[in-house]
Amino acid sequence: MPLDFYATHSTFSDPGELAHRYADLPHDPAQLARISRDLVIHRMEGGLFGHTHPTDRLHNDAETRYIDDILRIIVERDDAPLSQRREPGDRFVGTCRDFSLLHCSFLRHIGVPARIRSGFVDYFDPNGPSAFHNDHVVTEYWDEQRGWLLADAELADPFMTDHWKIDFDPMDVPRDRFLVAGEAWRAIREGGADQEAFGLHPPHEGPFWGEWFVAGNIRLDLAALNKVETLLWDVWGEGEEEGGEPGGPLSEPAREFFDRVAPVVSGDVSFTAARELFAKEDSLRTPNTVTSYAPFNGPSRVTLR
User: Fold this and answer.
1) What value, to the nearest 5°, has the Cα angle with vertex 271 and ends 210 and 63?
2) Which of 153, 160, 162, 305 could form a disulfide with 33 if both were Cys (CB 3.0 to 4.6 A apart)?
3) Entry's InterPro entries (predicted)?
4) How far apart are CA 149 and CA 161, in angstroms?
């Protein structure tokens, strides 16, 4: 049952009327990761590829929640088969979530169980592993021999692995290099890890770090485990109130709440427990309308499909 659930599309991963574009794609997960990499460029990668993103694409592409809409943007810019590498100027300008959700969509389309996971990595430092763990999203897919593996489609181009000095297979990211959000929470609360070492940026570069940020990622990760793959800045439930100002301390009741939630989304995730928690906790379950704190366009209320 769990594998069947993850082998079918969500509202977010469904290519819809553009499913025919998947007809000629390979069935190898690694090749599909490379195709995802070659169709998308990260908002922050323009300089790395010697390219300047047009302002409208920089601001608006990554606000696209659904794969069918992402595909429309891709084919409008270049109508070639999806397996054909796009030049940087013709790619969808997204985030880690978009590389991973597109890879997840490809995998589900060929019947491979897949889901996206929110967490934190130590490998986005060109000098090698960093003490700071960056907010990140990867794909988790089912391997018949080894079970669930983590894949980082953003690293599927050797140019990227060389740039970041990656010393592992991007199709099998070590679990201690990518900590799912629940594991990051437990590292802070149970393992004594410094909360300042987890976030979107180090504390001196902005307020998006620490316990309140990790708690928000737990909410996103639980939703994704239930095939609700929202934007990373979509907020609901108590997320807007917990901790007050970004970077501020969580209340003790909030800490105790996430102490109970974190184990559900850690380790070998129990499908039943993740489904039940999402269904019964109003503050965790994604509502029809969320608040989107778009980095460039500002906050707005958005009704999901």
Assistant:
1) 50
2) 153
3) Papain-like_cys_pep_sf, Transglutaminase-like
4) 18
Nearest in space to 133 (alpha carbons), one of 183, 88, 76: 183
Whether the model pTM is above 0.70: yes
The pLDDT of residue 247: 63
pLDDT on residue 244: 45
- Cα distances (Å, whole numbers) of residue 23 to 20, 26, 55: 5, 9, 33
Residues in contact with 110: Cβ distance below 8 Å, sequence separation at least 6, in sequence order = 25, 27, 32
pLDDT at 1: 76
Whether 143 contacts 129, CB under 8 Å:
no
| Structure-derived torsion over alpha carbons of residues 241, 295, 121, 231, reported in degrees to the nearest 10 | 70
Write out the chain in H/E/C secondary structure: CHHHHHCCCCCCCCCHHHHHHHCCCCCCHHHHHHHHHHHEEECCCCHHHCCCCCHHHHHHHHHCCCHHHHHHHHHHHCCCCCCCCCCHHHCEEECHHHHHHHHHHHHHHCCCCEEEEEEEECCCCCCCCCCCEEEEEEEEEEECCCEEEEECHHHCCHHHHHHCCCCCCCCCCCCCCEEEHHHHHHHHHCCCCCHHHEECCCHHHCCCECHHHHHHHHHHHHHHHCCCCCCCCEECCCCCCCCCCCCCCCCHHHHHHHHHHHHHHCCCCCHHHHHHHHHHCCCCCCCCEEEEEECCCEEEEEECC
Question: Is residue 271 over pLDDT 50?
Answer: yes
Cα angle 188, 97, 93; round to 5: 135
